[in-house]
């Protein structure tokens, strides 16, 4: 299997990361706080936020993203996504409507890519073990996920402060592979571009896959 060489991968992330870090430090933190509805603590010069159920502080003006233990986020993709939100995004309350990816502005254009990177990957990752998916969503208390009646398993949870999304799974059988759907509350369209919303899907799947390690007995039993 062909893999992107580490140096080339670094080049793809370091340039945009540096670009948005440069923009971020020129902004007014109080304007960011109002626009994104995020608390800003002047004493420590940092925003408080929740990302996939975990509390973080985003330092300003030198951007760093650290959890309560002081551990930093390693993924450059997560850092770029959050920086783009802080630099460009806007928070508005949701009207209560959920949107499929192809219903968001420009989503239909990027949908084939999103379907492969997110929906099919999500189905492959959890569709053959829905019990494990339920255990992750219900057993990870920090997610505060709410079960939904759609699908064989469905949950709504907060991606970042006030921005909620839903994951739905359908089990496969002898004739059909597992199916999945990812829905976003309608206020996502003000916070992120279509390309960034696709990145949201990838970040969430990556984090949920990592949560498997919190259920070793269940994972071992499956293996």
The poorly predicted ranges are: 219-223
Beta-strand content estimate: 15-25%
Give a count of the beta strands, DSSP E runs of length 2 or more: 9
Question: N-to-C SSE series?
Answer: HHEEEEHEHHEEEEHHH
As a whole number of angstroms, the C-alpha radius of gyration is 18 Å
Mean pLDDT: 92
The first-to-last residue Cα distance is 23 Å
Helix fraction by DSSP (H/I, runs of at least 4): 40-55%
Question: Order of strands side by side in the largest beta sheet?
Answer: 5-9-8-7-6
Shape: globular
Helix and strand content put the structural class at alpha+beta
Number of distinct helices: 8
Main sheet record: 5 strands, antiparallel
Number of domains: 2
Provide structural commentary.
It is built from eight helices and nine strands. The chain has 223 residues and is of the alpha+beta class. The protein folds into two domains: 6-88, no CATH class; 98-222. It has a five-stranded antiparallel beta sheet with strand order 5-9-8-7-6. Helix 3 packs across helix 7 (194-210). The chain is globular and about 55 Å long.
Give me some keywords for this one.
single chain, 223 residues, alpha+beta, 2 domains, five-stranded antiparallel β-sheet, four-stranded antiparallel β-sheet
Can you describe this structure in just a few lines?
With 223 residues, this protein is of the alpha+beta class. The protein has helices at 6-24, 29-36, 76-88, 107-126, 130-139, 188-191, 194-210, 216-222; strands at residues 40-41, 46-51, 54-59, 65-67, 98-100, 146-147, 153-160, 163-170, 179-185.
């Amino acid at each position: 299997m062909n893999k992107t060489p580490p140096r080339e991968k670094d080049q793809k992330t370091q340039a945009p990361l540096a670009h948005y870090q440069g923009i971020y430090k020129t902004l007014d933190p109080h304007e960011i706080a109002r626009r994104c509805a995020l608390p800003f603590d002047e004493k420590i010069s940092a925003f408080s936020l929740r990302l996939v159920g975990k509390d973080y502080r985003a330092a300003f003006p030198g951007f760093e993203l650290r959890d309560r233990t002081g551990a930093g986020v390693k993924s450059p993709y997560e850092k770029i996504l959050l920086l783009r939100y802080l630099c460009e995004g806007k928070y508005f309350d949701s009207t209560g409507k959920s949107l499929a990816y192809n219903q968001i502005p420009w989503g239909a254009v990027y949908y084939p890519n999103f379907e492969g990177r997110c929906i099919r990957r999500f189905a492959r990752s959890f569709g053959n073990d829905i019990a494990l998916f339920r255990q992750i969503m219900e057993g990870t208390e920090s997610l505060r996920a709410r079960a939904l009646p759609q699908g064989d398993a469905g949950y709504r949870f907060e991606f970042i402060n006030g921005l909620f999304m839903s994951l739905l799974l359908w089990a496969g059988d002898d004739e059909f592979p597992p199916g999945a759907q990812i829905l976003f509350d309608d206020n996502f369209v003000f916070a992120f571009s279509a390309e960034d919303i696709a990145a949201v899907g990838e970040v969430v799947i990556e984090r949920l896959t990592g949560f498997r390690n919190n259920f070793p007995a269940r994972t071992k039993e499956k293996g």
